[in-house]
Request: fold
Amino acid sequence: METSLECIDLPYGPEGKQWQDTLSSLVSWKSTVEKKGLVSAPSSCDVISCEIVPEGITPALYQVPSTGLTTAQHDQAMKETLAVIEGPQGSLLGYACNRSFKVPSLFQCPFTEVMINNGGSPYSGIRSLSFRPKWMERNVLDYYASLWNAKWPYDQSDPLSCWGYILTMGSTEGNLHALWSARNYLSGNYLQPHTDPSKSDQPSTNPIQQPSIAPSMEPVVLYSCNTNGSLPRLCNMVNLPTFDVIGREKYPTENPLGGDWAAGVPCEGGDAGPGTIDISSLELLVDFFSSKGHPIVLVLNCGTTFKGSFDDVELAGSKMVEILKRSGMYERVKVDTESVSGRVIRKGFWVHIDGAFAAAYSPFLEMAYKNGLTDVQPPSPFDFRNDFVTSIVMSGHKFIGTPWPCGVYLVRHSEQIVTWGSTWNGSPDTTVGLSRNGHSSILLWSYISLNSYDSQVATVLECLHLVSYTLDQLRKLQSKLGTDLWITNYPPSLAILFRKPNSETVEKYTLFCPTVCIKSEIRHLSQIYIVPHVTSKLIDSLIEDLSKPDAFEF
Ligand SMILES: *Cc1c(COP(=O)(O)O)cnc(C)c1O
Reply:
């Protein structure tokens, strides 16, 4: 990232300190070159994304520095927000939202007594409506944009900045948005205008009236066989074929991996391996499909659901870029009679990172490692430091642990497509739903405010420590029993696999039980995740149950 684009002396946060002075020493701009660049600085001094807020909101109070906020600052912001939301609710007339619903008393808090709805883009329709706490949402987006090394804050006139929103569903919705966008982008649909409507005299055009550039190529989706089960469903939903579907349909006898087309790019070592995408198979497939003229949608994992493994994003992406440059698919120039220059340049790929579980903790693992606090190596950078990464999603209810599903989604503005449908205050609404969960924005904002970088690093270190403790205990039990318990963990994954115990234990600890085939042997396994609520006491209790005579059905 170019230093000239960074505004490290911008006043940031409730104390009005310069941004660089708010940084934890873990990522300090003034410390060693090694640590510099673990997060991205704000890029623009005059566009600070939470400037436009309703009366009663103090913008700087919502900017969350890496040190987090004090409890007093956090509580003041929550009270201020509640007051602004509560104010007009008694006289609500303009929206079809019934306010006489009774929340059960056990569920009640002041925030469940009000209607909150963050409909539309986080960056539009923000001035007028008090029940849309987008000032919190935008600061959560800024926080993760910095953590994932994106250019921030979002600036509609800057194609290099990142846009995003807090998801009402979890990562499934972010994956859907990425695939939907990738399909439209790679098929040549119009992009979002890179102008600021408030700075322009021109009326904004309704996207429906814009003609589409004729799609001439059929994109193909590639992801590993360990990818989350929501992906095939979503590809089907947006009519975006996976490579095996196109392969069977158009190239039945030409599979570069040999044999019949099968779903999912093979993983290293199959079921017996670490669950990461096999780079040489990926290269063969990218080469095959791009040489046939198919743009590539590549979905890579930062923490798979099963095994919690990390694809080597840096290697996979750079290999893909090399191949696309060779096959002339890296950039495609299309003639567009409607555009002023007559030329439109589009990339021939979209790389989406599914970080549902691990995008929340791997940046902190990297900080810990680079500061010499752990020997556990972080995965290769999955974030926007890679020029080829287009979009990233993370769930809020997984590692972070919000009580209901939600998530964070970021996408490069340069690739943001015009979507069809309604507009908000002259700026197109590019989210999936019209209404969006605003309570989630408040919860995520509260989480980042009360959890500094340093405390999140400490949390990750505790998890890693408990992973090795659990592995030790399981191995001790294994030697006592004299039976292979198939104990497996692939660092830096927080998932541990071992032989499935009896159903009583499975139920007691709500274990996830996959079945795999290793060297033609069927293995019934169970998987546990070492997340922040897990304690050594809970592990001891599990080990005690696993030590009982009938714990395993051999
Ligand atoms: C859980 C998960 C999903 C689905 O995310 P939700 O937040 O449950 O919608 C997608 N990808 C991966 C890797 C997951 O672990």
Q: What stands out?
A: DSSP finds twelve helices and 15 strands in the chain.
